[in-house]
Amino acid sequence: GSDLELKCINTIRVLAADMVQKANSGHPGAPMGCAPMAHALWSSVAAGGAGRVHSAKSPGWWNRDRFVLSNGHACALQYVMLHLSGYEDCSMEQLKQFRQVGSRTPGHPENFCTKGVEVCTGPLGQGISNAVGMAIAAKHLGATYNTPDFNIITNKTYVICGDGCLQEGISGEASSLAGHLGLGGLIVLYDDNNITIDGNTDLAFTEDVAKRYEAYGWHVQTVGDVANGLGDLQKAIEEAKKVTDKPSLIKVRTAIGYGSPNKQGSESSHGAPLGDSEVAAVKDRLYGCDPNEKFYVPEDVAAFYKEQADEADAARVAWEAEFAKYKEAHPDKAAELERRFNHEMPEGAFYDLPKFVFGKDKANATRKFSEACLNAVAPKFPELMGGSADLTGSNCCQIKGAKDFQKHSPEGIMVRFGVREHAMAAICNGMFAYGAFRPFCATFLQFAGYALGAMRCSALSKFGVIYIMTHDSIGLGEDGPTHQPVEMLESLRAMPNMNVFRAADANEMAAAYEMALKNVHTPSVICCTRGTVSPLENSTKEKAMRGGYTVVEAEGDSAPDLVLVATGSEVWRCVDAAKALQSEHSIRTRVVSMPCQEIFLEQDDEYRNSVLPGNVPTLSVEASSEHGWHRFSHAQIGLTRFGMSGPLEELFVKFGFGAENVAAKGKEVVDFYKQRGGNVPNLNDRPHFVNFTGPDH
Amino acid sequence: GSDLELKCINTIRVLAADMVQKANSGHPGAPMGCAPMAHALWSSVAAGGAGRVHSAKSPGWWNRDRFVLSNGHACALQYVMLHLSGYEDCSMEQLKQFRQVGSRTPGHPENFCTKGVEVCTGPLGQGISNAVGMAIAAKHLGATYNTPDFNIITNKTYVICGDGCLQEGISGEASSLAGHLGLGGLIVLYDDNNITIDGNTDLAFTEDVAKRYEAYGWHVQTVGDVANGLGDLQKAIEEAKKVTDKPSLIKVRTAIGYGSPNKQGSESSHGAPLGDSEVAAVKDRLYGCDPNEKFYVPEDVAAFYKEQADEADAARVAWEAEFAKYKEAHPDKAAELERRFNHEMPEGAFYDLPKFVFGKDKANATRKFSEACLNAVAPKFPELMGGSADLTGSNCCQIKGAKDFQKHSPEGIMVRFGVREHAMAAICNGMFAYGAFRPFCATFLQFAGYALGAMRCSALSKFGVIYIMTHDSIGLGEDGPTHQPVEMLESLRAMPNMNVFRAADANEMAAAYEMALKNVHTPSVICCTRGTVSPLENSTKEKAMRGGYTVVEAEGDSAPDLVLVATGSEVWRCVDAAKALQSEHSIRTRVVSMPCQEIFLEQDDEYRNSVLPGNVPTLSVEASSEHGWHRFSHAQIGLTRFGMSGPLEELFVKFGFGAENVAAKGKEVVDFYKQRGGNVPNLNDRPHFVNFTGPDH
Ligand SMILES: [Ca+2]
Ligand SMILES: [Ca+2]
User: Fold this and answer.
1) N or C: which end of chain A has fewer CB within 10 A?
2) What is the pTM of this model?
3) B578's torsion region: left (phi>0), alpha (psi -120 to 50) or beta?
C-alpha cells in the first residue's frame, strides 16, 4: 500500500492503544490487528477500500451500508473510525472518555448510546447473527419497495468478526441460514489472528473455518497478511460484491496487537492495556514519531478520512434527491416506508383485533387467540416479519396467505428459521436494528432458554421484537419436563425492559398484541397455552392493558375475604374456585388476572391498591416457579420442582392447579389469618425509593 | 438383509406406532425411520450389527457402550429396544403406559426415571453434546486407570441424531471441539430423513452437513437407504470403530414414518399419532399380519433380541472377572474408581479448604477465593475435571500444575472448551452422566444466558455439575451492560434443583465449595466477584453452610431496629452502612449474609426466623434484579435497569450500592414504619403448604 495508507492504519492503531491506555482498561490487540480491515471499510474504492456508503451527518440514513463489529471488545477501533469520519458522538473528547461512566464510548458498542453503532456487540456471536438479520431486512425491503425505475434500498451489510464469534453456536446457526437464503448482501471479514483469550487457537479451535462456510453455501476467500497495507483485500471485497446469490466470508490473516514489540501476536495484548512504555514503543516502531504524543492524528490522515467521509456521504445526498423523485412517483410506497422507519402506528392499527363475546364465542387455546390477533394486525403492519424455529404449526404463527421469505421469494414475510432459536432471536434483533421492521419469532416457551443471550440483547438494545412463546407451562403435557417451562417466566420477568404477557383469554391476548406493538422500544414475550382455556365473563382488552385487573369481584360491597391472583390458563380455574369458595364456605373471593406484571407495576399506587389491596389474604396461582410471587401474595400455588410427562389436565390436578385444590388452599389461607385474629401483613405497606443517581447517557 | 432382520426392524416400527397410538400422543415417524439404526446398535457383529456392549441386568455397568438418542422425541424407539433387551423399567406394561403420569416411559427420555437411559434428551442438540462429554470421560478415564496389563475402560459412545440436533448451534460447538480433541470413541448415526417439523429440510436446512463435519475434523461416511435392511451400515460402523483418532459421523438416508402408506416421508408422521386405521395399514403392509393385533412381538424376534442382549451382557460378565483381577493387581486404582463411580467423598475431602483469619489474611476478589478453594479440593477429588470457555485466567479456574486434556494428553484434567458456553455445560452433563466425574466449568455469569438450556438439563437430570461464574454483577465494570448480569441470579434461583451461591468472603466461598461437592445430585453455581471484597469479621464456613446467617449483630439484646440482608460483594458495604447507622442515628442494625437462598430456605422455621425475624424492617441489598427479594425484605436496593460501562466503584455508587446510600435508605425504611406507629408487616407470617399430590416416579 501507499505510505499514506500505512500511516492511516497506524494512526488507527495508535489511537486505539492510547484510548485503552488512558482508560486503563480494554482491549488493544484486536483494534491494532483489525485496523487494516477498518481502513478498507472506511475508504472509497478509489482509495483502495470497500466504498462503503454511510453518513456522519445523518447516521440513520436508511440506505447506509451497515457495519457490525461482531468482536465488540475491539470497539476502540469503531470509535476511532467514527471519530475520523466526523461522527459527533465520537469527538476526541469522547475518545479520551473511553469506558468512563456516562461517556459515548462505552466498553462495548451500544446502539442506544452512540450514533453510528448499529447494535450492541460484545456477547460473542451476536453481531454476525444480527448482520444476517440486517441482510434479510435489506433484501426484503428492496424486493418490496424498489421499483423498475427506482432502487431505493440497495445497501450491503459488512461485518468484522473474530474466532470467538465463529466458535459460538449462534453464529453457526445464523450462517447456515444465511447460506440457505443466499444473502448476497452480506460480507464478513474474519479477523483470523490465531489467538483467543486463553492463548493460541490451537488450544481449542483447529477446525477448517473456510471449509465449514463453504459447506454452509457461502462464497469464501482467503487474504494473506494485511498488517502493512491492504494487499489483496480490496480485490476480495470487490469479488464478494459481485457474488449476489451467496453471503461472503473473507478470511484475513492478521496479527493481534500488531506494532507492539513485545505483545504482538500474543494473547497478552488481548484484554489489558499494553502499558505506557509499550504504547510509546508502538509509536516509535510504527511511526518513528514522538512516543509522548497522545491522541494524535496527523493532518494528512485527518484530511484523508474527511475526504472519505465526504465521499461516503455524497451517496446519501444523491439518494435523498432520488428518494424525493420516488416519493412523487410512488407516494404510497414512500409514505409507508417513512411510517415504517419512524415506527408510527398505521391507521386503524388495532381496529380488527378480535373481541371475545362471552357466551357466544368458542373456548380455545390461547395460542389460537394469538394466531387470530397476529392475523388481525398483520395486514396493517407490513413491518411484521418473522416466523418460527421449525414449529410454525404448533406456535400458530403463520400469517395467512403470506409467502415464505426465501432465496427466490425475498418479498415473502414468513421466515423459516429452522431449529435455530438463538440465531432466530439475534436475526430479529438485526432486522429491528435495520429499521422499518417489527420482527416476530416463535418457539416453545421452554426454548426461550436457548435464545436468552439474544433476547437479552433485544431488551438492552431497546428493540421491540415480539416473541411468541407457546406451550407455556406444565400444560404442555405429554412431552414432559424437558419441554415444560418452570423458571422461564421468572427469568424473563427479572430482565429489565422486557414485557412478559400471559393472557387468560382472547380479550387479554388482544391487549398483549396492542401493548407489544405500541411498545416499540421494549421487546415483548407473548406466552400462550397449548390447551383450551374457559372464557372469562368480564375481561376486556382495555382492562387487560393495565397489566392486572379484577376479573371477578367478590359478592357484597365490603373488602373481599380473599384475593386469588393468577395468569393465563390458571385464571379460569381460579374463577371456578372462587365460585366454590362462595357457595360452599361463604368466602367472598375476588379473582385478579395479571396478564403482565411489568405493566401492572407501571400503574399508579391507587390503581394497584384497588386491585390488590395487600391487606386481604392473597393467594397467587401460576403453573410456574413461585419464586417472584411473594411480592403480590401471602401464599403461592406454584412450582418448586420440574414437571412430568402426562395428559395436561391430569398434570394440573397433580401439581395443585385444579380448581378444587385452589379452593382448598384459598380456604386455608383465610383460616390461617383468622386464627391470627385477622392480622394480615399488608403487602403494599413498603417504602419505595429510587437508587440510581445522576444522569444517564 | 435377512428375513429375520427385516422382521425385527418392522417389529420395532409397529411397536412404536402402537405406543404412540395408545398414548394418543407422541412421535411415530422418527422411530419408524430410525428402526434399522436401532436394530444395528442392539445387534451383535455376528448378527450384522454394531456389537454394542451393555447390560440389562446391570444397566449402570461402568464399561457399557453408551447410547444417546439425541432426537429424544423418538423415545418410543428407545423404550422398545430396552424392552426387547430385557430392561426391567421397560416392561410391556410400561410400553402401554407411554407418556402417562408416573410411568417409566415418559414423553422424552429421562435418565432419572428409566434405567438404560443415560441422559435427558428432547431439547434438540443436547444429546449429541452430552455424548461428546461421555467420550471425553471415557478417554480420560481409560488413560488414567487402564494399565499395561488391564484395559478396564474401553467403551464407545453411540448416538442417533436428526437434522434438528444438527441445526442447533450447541451441536456445532460440541462437534467442533470433538473434532479438535480427536474423540475416536464417538460414533454418531445421523438420521438423514430430509424432513423437519415444518416440512422438507429444503425450507431452511440446505447446507452440506457431511462437508461441515469434515471441516470439524470428523471421519464422515454416507450410507444409502436402510429402510429394508442394514445394507452397508454395519460396514460403516466397523470403519468408524477403526478410526481411533477422529469422531465419526455416519449419514444414513432414512424415511420418516417408514411403512405408513399415507404418511411415510412426510412431516405429518412426525409429531402426532398415525391414527388407528393408518397403524393397521402399517401392520398389513409391513407384515401381512393381523392389523388388529397390538403390542405384538413375534416369537422369533423376541428370541433374537434376547440372544443379542445375552451376548452384550456376556461382555459385562467377562469384564467383572477382569476387574476382580485388576482390583488385586491395582487395589488403589480400583478403590478410587469405585469411590468415584459411587460419588463418595474422599477422605479429608474438605480439610484443606482455606480458613480466612480476619485481620491477618489479605482482602481479595472472591474469584481468587474460588481459585484457592478449587485448588484446595482438587488434589483430593481427581473426579474434578473441567475448565473455562476461553476465560481461564479471568475465571481463576486453573488447577495448578494440571495438564490440559488434549488429543495427545488424555490424562489431563483441564478442558479448553473454547468460546462455547452452551456446549461446555452440555459436555459437563455428559461427563457427569458417564459416572466417576464431578465436572466443573466456568465463564462470566452473564454468559450463563448462553448455556441456560444445558444448565437446566443439569438441574432436571440431577447432575451435580459445578458452575464457576465470575464477574457476577455490575461490579464487572468497564466492559459494560452487555457483560454485566442483572437478571441471571434470579433466573437461576427460579430454577428447581439449582443451588446458587454468592459468597461474601473466603470462608463463605469454602462453604460454597463444600456444599457444591456434597450435593452430588444438585448442580451449583458459584458466583464470584471481579473486584476485591473487604473481609468479614464473623464469617465462618459452618455458619455460611446454612445458606444465610447473621454476620453482624445489632448492639444490645433486644430485637434490632433494622435488618440489612445482602449477598457477595454487597455484604461488606452493608457492614459499613450498619456501623454508620449505629453511630450516626443509633439505629441498631443487624447484617445478614445470604450466600445461598436455596439452602437457607431448607433450614427449619426456627432458624430462619432467628436470622430474618420478618417483623423487623428489612432492607435487601443485591447488585442484581430485585425481582425475587420481596420474599425476604420490605424494601430493596437492587436493579430494575441494565448497568453501564465504567469503573466498578463508581458504578456501585451510581446504582445505589455504596455504603452511604445503603445507610440512607436503611434509615428511610426505619422511619417509614416509625411513621406508621411501628406497624411492620411480618414477612414470615405466611401459610405454607404442599400442592403436589400423589406419588412421584
Ligand atoms: Ca482471535
Ligand atoms: Ca429430520
Assistant:
1) C
2) 0.98
3) alpha
